[in-house]
Design brief:
Layout (H helix, E strand, L loop, with lengths): L6 E9 L3 E2 L35 E2 L3 E15 L2 E9 L11
Antiparallel strand pairs: 1-4, 2-3, 4-5
Amino acid sequence: MQHLYWQFQGLLSLNTGRWESPTVASTLNAPGNATRPNSFAIPLQNTLGTTGRNVIQGPGVVNLDGALHRQFRIREGMDLALRVESFNFSNTPHFNN
């Protein structure tokens, strides 16, 4: 005899956010370098600033996908499958940095 029961499947993804460096617009004469602020204040002209790299962490991602399904016996050798799937089941927004 075959046991017919409800089954739930889920996929949970948890990711941390990307690290970012704050920058400010300036007239730095150093190609390839971005001007970082002095403790989140605008630095003097032609200086790099004192704030370290990658000191701000962006938002992470939390995502849950789910599926619920069951097979129903119609008669010998014939089953009916009911399947309900939901992507982003928790309806969690994913923001950019």
